[in-house]
Structure of Hydroxyproline O-arabinosyltransferase-like domain-containing protein:
Amino acid sequence: MSRASIIFLLAVVVCSFVATYNAINMALGHMRATIGAHQDADWEANREGTFHGASETLGKKLQGTWKTSRKEGQGSGAVDAVIPRPKDKVQKGEKRLFHVAVTTNESPYNRWQCRIHYYWYKQMKDREGSEMGGFTRILHSGKPDHMMDEIPTFVVDPLPEGMDKGYVVLNRPWAFQQWLEQAEIEEEYILMAEPDHVFVRPMPNLAADFMPAAYPFFYIEPKKYETLLRRYYPKDKGPITNIDPIGNSPVIIKKTDLQQIAPTWKNVSIAFKNDEEVDKAFGWVLEMYAYAVASALHGVSHILRQDFMVQPPFSTELDGAYIIHYTYGCDYNMKGELTYGKIGEWRFDKRSFSGGAIPRNMPMPPKGVPETVVRLVEMVNEATANIPGWEEGQQR
């Protein structure tokens, strides 16, 4: 090949490279401009409270249900945009700590439960196998109380007067939203717990890298209430089975996911409460359904963990569970037989102590009562014996 031919070929290669480089740059520039414009438009829409990702009907239904002044501006009645979940990775062997968060009001009834809850959190936190991080009692009374020095507490505002219509649990999603927006939370994951949870053993992070973990409740039945739920979870979002049979607690979830879900959860809860038919159908579990719907709207599914907790007296064996949830009354005769629905000769029911702290040294159940009930009373007695200043009937 002649020298002239070689020079000609080199010139062709260089020109082709330059042309290709320019073409790629032009294409990338166009893509950046297009994506940037879309992002700016979405941000502006979100800033103005426009609902994205659900039906126009749902947007109109929720629009205006949440309008109240906040410390940093005005709230919005719209559900936030459904934003894809993060794709970050967790390194193998890295401890994935989760922050334990409990919402509560200032009532003596919730206060003594929180004290027992926090006692057992401290007992389990540093044991082998635990991935429990920090702890926060989210107090939605709007003002500090005398428990601030005993339990790490973050004070948030309650809903505007009358908005909860006597359903105090409606404050929970709003409390979580404020805490997530205002507090500094070091951990990447959050466990949403409740005052009447007792940690039975050290808890690892049950969530997967990109999937939260939740306890499945048999009485949360999205399929049964599909007609009602389709008002808030339209068919274009997918099958009704996308709504998990869960509540918000117990749930271990990435902080970034919960930051996206919480405003939607709040707005759906309020909309449910203002929908007479939905309110009547869901009753005291209304806020649980609202969390399940809000999660589905954001495309978040949960790992369902039966071993998350047990609920005596219906759960009779611990079966490796991490939490005892003592929401139900436990009534037995002296033969150790359950008399549920009828006050037993022996009973343990948190509602018996709604006016003040439970007494120390509660009587142990009779022989034959399931291990879940026995363990619960043992743990309550240990906590009350060791918490300083515990007084029966204490209201402060």
User: Anything to note?
Assistant: The first strand starts at residue 69 and ends at 70. Residues 310-386 form one domain.
